[in-house]
Amino acid sequence: MREYKPSEPRPTLFVNARLVCPATGRDETGSLLVDGGAIAELGPDVPPAGRADVVDCRGAVLAPGLIDLGAFMGEPGAEHRETIETASLAAAAGGVTTIVARPDTTPPVDAPEIVDYLKRRARDTASVHVHPMAALTKGIAGVEMTEISLLLEAGAVAFTDGPRSIANARLMRRAMTYARDFGALICCHTEDADLIAGGAMNDGEFASRLGLPGRHKAAEALVLERDVRLALLTGARYHAGLVTCAESLEVVARAKQGGAAVTCGTSIAHLTLNENDVGEYRTFFKLAPPLRHEDDRRALVQALADGVIDVVCSAHDPQDVETKRRPFAEAEDGAIGLETMLAAGLRLVHSGDVPLPKLLAAMSTRPAELLGLPGGALTVGAPADLIVFDPDAPWVLDAQSLKSKSKNTPFDQARFQGRVLRTVVAGRTVYAYG
């Protein structure tokens, strides 16, 4: 494989491509011309451009670049796990052209100057777009609300306390009221900290057989139910970052039917893996929320196909060897996922459970709409943030070949069908396979 460093982009004509755009419903064979970092023309009959470089896609899919909502990028404070540079390299290899970064760093992203620092670091070191989310409470302590208006002005695109739920309902209501007034999106983790305390995996028969303490899915549904009611009360825009069980999906579906501005997401791991994958205490499968029963996984897949789930994310959470190679109950939660999100998602397409445009919408179009970001569509004038991938190419993942600094992937040695061939950001090729 070879990596491409950004340079002044030349006009590029992509030919013999399957153009797939979830935003417009386009799915046809054709060409696409990129000029000046934007899409200049596309369709079945784009005339040749004399001064343009020509890329023959040979029937591969050309689609909007993926937008990953909620990845942990390490900086500042955890550069031993990941950096903005290494995360962006992993993203580019996985077809992700925009990363929305979590704020649970050290220090947390709870002040305008930290947002500014991240934007400058991304400008200097990242090969893809990076947009920071800001903390909803100061220090991510769940006690005092941050300055939402100032953080928005600094460039924050959403507000969250990362992997922590806010226990204080009064504080949550107040934060939602302020966020509503500024049109800001609140994106929350939904697990009751007291109910899950000490839990290591999904509560159920399998956990009992392994002798591990469980984290019951009721802890998720309870917090989500409260937050949805507060969203209805305040009129705020609310996004549940990771829903993982059928009960939570029922809560979201009712909220949407009731007219609430509520959306939800789930991770690619929860869509394609279940609690049985933990096997013999395999800590790379220890996630938060935990992998659920197969019935819940199937419910998530159906909810994605039905449009109840709006967003699919990587839940990228790099951990080093020392924190993962411990007894299961003591190991840190989390897995990397930027580089494998699309490949794992294509399993759902090949099984016939989710149409390709629906999967791409959840990984690109809907995140762009929710966050007000450019991208997510193949339209004239849109940013040329693009991916070319062969949905049928077989390959086996070798964790050591991943671009991420940490290697804690649950997909090591997994067989995939579908590989990213090229990633383009603002008209520049930032990754190419081969």
UniProtKB/TrEMBL annotation:
The enzyme's E.C. designation: 3.5.2.3
SUPFAM superfamilies membership: Composite domain of metallo-dependent hydrolases, Metallo-dependent hydrolases
The entry's keywords: Hydrolase, Pyrimidine biosynthesis, Zinc
Every Dihydroorotase catalytic domain range: 59-247
Enzyme class: hydrolase
Coiled coil: none
Pfam families linked: Amidohydro_3, DHOase
Keyword Hydrolase: yes
Segments forming domain Amidohydrolase: 351-431
Gene3D superfamilies: Metal-dependent hydrolases, Urease, subunit C, domain 1
UniProt-recorded Gene Ontology molecular function terms: allantoinase activity; dihydroorotase activity; metal ion binding
GO terms (BP aspect): purine nucleobase catabolic process; pyrimidine nucleotide biosynthetic process
Cellular-component GO terms for this entry: cytoplasm
The keyword RNA-binding appears for this protein: no
Name of protein: Dihydroorotase
Species: Hansschlegelia zhihuaiae
